[in-house]
Amino acid sequence: MAPHILLTDDDELLRRSLAFNLEQAGYRVSTAASAEAALASARLDRPDLVLLDIGLPGMDGLEALRHFRDQLQVPVIFVSARRRELDQLLGLELGGDDYITKPFSVDLLLARVKAVLRRTQHAPATAEPAIVAVGDITIDPLAHTVTVGGRPLTLPPREFELLRALAAEAGHMVTVDDLLARVWGAEFAGEPQVVYVHIRWLREKIEADPHHPQRIVTVRGVGYKLEPHGG
Q: Are residue 77 and residue 150 in the same domain, yes or no?
């Protein structure tokens, strides 16, 4: 399975460019424009490596690093235009596995990514994602399987991650913007129709009557919530 890299940077053009080059090199890539979105994404789909800009809006890269290190034990490569700051960070031993300064070549980035993955791939295994049960829906993130009322269900990757994102907040409303950030990444911000379409497809597979949904409930004008049903 291709290593999963989570790329976190508020520069949209840079995200697109780096994501393309990383995918061309054989990696699976998720993107986020903020530390908050990156952490939400990582909790749903744990990456093998995080590329993390320091100067992010909201929570900065330093605070995000503490979460990635303490909660998820994920290796992090810092990305910044400030060489002096990065030298100080590494000197303080905050936990970054490597750093690269802007501007940089794609070849250099790929070499750093490969080196960090090589160093960390033999590290002790962390806890695997737990199986999630919401009513009679069971989601196994590791096996990538879903059962509804004991019936196995085959879902494409996006629908699987959408259901998983809703299940993580079962009984609580999740906004369309949050679902976009968690499942599709920052590049899809402002494109709510992507969520609407996938919700419709998902309902067709898990609802007894997709036109009158009892499981994925619409919170009109805001988002959706997954309600326990059966079980």
A: no
Residue 125 lies in a domain: no
Q: Is the CB of residue 173 less than 8 Å from the CB of residue 231?
A: no
Mark out the alpha helices in the chain (DSSP H runs). 12-24, 35-44, 61-67, 83-91, 106-120, 157-168, 176-179, 193-206
As given in the structure block, the two tokens for residue 122 are: 């033999």
Whether 201 contacts 195, CB under 8 Å: no
Closest CA to 123 of 97, 149, 105: 97
Verify cis geometry, omega within 30 degrees of 0, for the bond prior to 47.
no
SS3 for 76? strand
pLDDT under 70 in the chain at which residues?
82-97, 121-129, 185-188, 231
The span from the CA of 3 to the CA of 17, in Å, is 18
Please count the structural domains in the chain: 2
The pLDDT assigned to 118 comes to 80
150 and 116 share a domain? no
DSSP 228: P
107-131 per-position pLDDT tens digit: 888 988 888 888 776 544 444 567 8
| Domain identity same for 114 and 9 | yes
Rg (CA), the chain: 19
Element spanning 7, H or E? strand 4-8
Task: Read off the pLDDT of residues 41-78 as tens digits, 9 standing for 90 and up.
Answer: 998 888 999 998 888 888 887 788 878 877 787 888 88
Q: What is the CATH number of the domain that holds 184?
A: 1.10.10.10
